[in-house]
Design goal:
CATH class of the largest domain: Mainly Alpha
CATH superfamily of the largest domain: Cytochrome P450
Bound molecules: protoporphyrin IX containing FE
Number of strands: 11
Helix content: 40-55%
Strand content: 5-15%
Number of domains: 2
Shape: globular
Largest sheet: 4 strands, mixed
Structural class: alpha+beta
Distance between the termini: 85 Å
Strand order of the largest sheet: 3-4-9-6
CATH architecture of the largest domain: Orthogonal Bundle
CATH topology of the largest domain: Cytochrome p450
């Protein structure tokens, strides 16, 4: 092919060059978005964006460094997908609360298969409002009190397992797997009345299958990659680009478990007051039907009231059961583990906490009433969550063009908050690098800007399970400290690195020694 009468190139080479030229032009246009908006843009690698850096160093590390370098509002890219990273507490308040109606949805970098759009954590607009209002009553004080006996039953098993390990390995052992099994047992029994024996069965299927979710790696998924580098494709072919987050076999595993819980409950006429019961109450049919699960999907356009009349669909029951089982277990386990780490590395704080427990609860069984009265426990947990916010990044999507504090946010923009970076900003925290539970004492709480503290997010779309999580973490720490004192071992890595995944877990075994008190 002759070009401008100057050079003669083979057609295939012209094709390749034109493709490369178009990709470069597209990337250049996409990645100059923040400059066009007059917003500071992080230095980024052409086409790849920050992918390599994120993968090598993790969100937490990068975000903390970026805030230092670029300030409280700046743009960055994953591939060609832009995110506006916001670490300004006032803007976070505007987005999560004051102007929530313009930011009801979460941003997703990719199109998910239709059924996932029925998850309360992923759904948008009125669909999300309907799901959230139906599911929220799961966590009222009355229902939480009713959950306590279920938590205690799981706790008794945890204690038997721990006692056994203390006997077998008096020099110390990794406590993480036992806590993870325990929190899976708790969410399945408190939410669904299911006994799944995650603590007592090795390689438990509930834990194994949840890993697909928790360890989902978009960079290994071709559809995900395609949408990351060419986001325009998912705008043009949204249906074609729909990506699954877990394999069909893991999905079928959860589907079977949910159906089992549903059928057991339908035949059990005793009074239940949990998540499953709420969903069954909101469901109009008698059974969960396989074809229903695949077809009754996102009937977008229905108002909250219309959805209430229609009731919970099979898909909504199934998908939200999966979401609660997964969201409710690893988050809570990780929070308990970080708290244990903070207690073994700061024995004076552990001693003070034991003193409070001995004085106020003694050997009484922890209950909804008594654990929430432990003030020092609350302060230590809050400080532990400031040091180790386990959800690395939160976000909201602008559903229309908005201007906040002079920053122009275009419709569709992913507004990201980075909790770890925020939790260490000297502007919001006095001596941020010091572990000081006293900063959360009632008399000091007025000094805290609540929008610079995001372990459970903020606003109407914050963590729906926060109360259950707090009850579970606090009761577990109380019963453990009623029986044992924790010590660090030589094998404990200090400081403990945070994993680079979306959920910031301790990245090395948490090898601690327990002595009976
Ligand atoms: C200590 C444990 C937990 C932590 C640290 C945690 C943290 C979070 C965070 C940071 C968010 C995002 C909030 C936002 O965007 O503003 C979230 C959302 C959510 N969490 Fe939790 N969570 C925990 C336990 C739980 C439990 C026990 C459940 C269920 C029983 C749960 C269910 C959910 C759900 C369904 C959402 C999405 C809510 C929505 O979009 O409306 N979480 N969680």
């Amino acid at each position: 092919m002759e070009i401008l009468g100057l050079i003669d190139l083979p057609g295939w080479l012209v094709g390749i060059l034109s493709f490369v030229f178009t990709v470069c032009l597209y990337t250049w246009y996409k990645q100059s978005l923040f400059k066009r908006l007059g917003i500071t843009s992080k230095d980024t690698v052409f086409f790849l964006g920050d992918i390599t850096e994120m993968r090598q160093k993790g969100f937490n590390y990068i975000d903390s460094k970026m805030v230092d370098k670029y300030g409280k509002v700046f743009g960055c890219f994953i591939g060609n997908i832009p995110s506006l990273v916001i670490s300004d507490a006032d803007m976070i308040k505007q987005i999560t609360v004051k102007q929530f109606s313009s930011f009801t949805d979460r941003a997703s970098p990719i199109q998910l298969t239709e059924r996932w759009q029925s998850a309360v954590s992923i759904a948008s607009g009125d669909h999300w409002r309907f799901l959230r209002t139906t599911l929220s009553p799961t966590f009222t004080a009355g229902r939480m009190k009713a959950m306590c006996p279920y938590i205690h039953k799981c706790m008794t098993i945890l204690h038997e397992i721990i006692a056994d390990n203390v006997k077998k390995s008096p020099e110390g052992f990794d406590i993480v797997p036992f806590i993870r099994g325990y929190t899976m047992d708790v969410i399945c029994s408190t939410g669904f009345g299911l006994e799944v024996s995650a603590q007592t069965t090795p390689d438990n299927a509930f834990i194994r299958n949840s890993k697909e979710f928790l360890d989902f790696d978009g960079l290994r998924n071709p559809l995900f990659l395609l949408q990351m580098f060419f986001p325009v494709i998912s705008e043009i072919f949204p249906k074609l680009m729909r990506t699954n987050i877990i394999s069909e076999s893991a999905f079928e595993f959860y589907e079977t478990a949910t159906k089992r819980a549903f059928h057991e409950r339908k035949e059990d006429h005793s009074k239940h007051n949990d998540l499953l019961q709420l969903m069954i109450k909101a469901h109009k049919g008698d059974d969960l039907d396989k074809s229903g699960i695949q077809n009754d999907v996102v009937d977008s356009g229905l108002s909250v009231e219309q959805r209430k009349t229609r009731g919970f669909t099979d898909t909504e029951i199934l998908i939200n059961s999966i979401i609660f089982m997964v969201a409710g277990y690893d988050t809570t386990a990780t929070t308990i583990c970080w708290m244990i780490y903070d207690l073994v590395t700061q024995p004076d704080i552990q001693d003070k906490l034991i003193e409070e427990i001995d004085e106020k609860i003694g050997k009484d069984v922890p209950s909804y009433e008594n654990v929430f009265k432990l003030q020092y426990l609350d302060m230590v947990l809050q400080e532990s969550q400031r040091f180790h916010p386990i959800v690395g990044r939160l976000n909201r999507k602008a559903i229309e063009d908005v201007e906040i504090n002079g920053v122009k946010i275009p419709k569709g923009m992913d507004c990201t908050f980075a909790p770890l970076a925020l939790h260490f900003m000297p502007e919001y925290w006095d001596e941020p690098n010091k572990f000081r539970p006293e900063r959360f004492a009632p008399e000091n709480k007025g000094n805290i800007n609540e929008y610079a503290y995001l372990p459970f997010g903020q606003g109407p779309r914050n963590c729906i399970g926060k109360r259950l999580a707090l009850l579970e973490v606090k009761s577990t720490i109380v019963t453990l400290l009623q029986k044992y004192k924790f010590y660090k071992t030589e094998k404990l890595v200090e400081p403990m690195p945070m994993s680079k995944t979306g959920l910031s877990r301790p990245d090395k075994p948490l090898i601690v020694k327990l002595d009976a008190r």
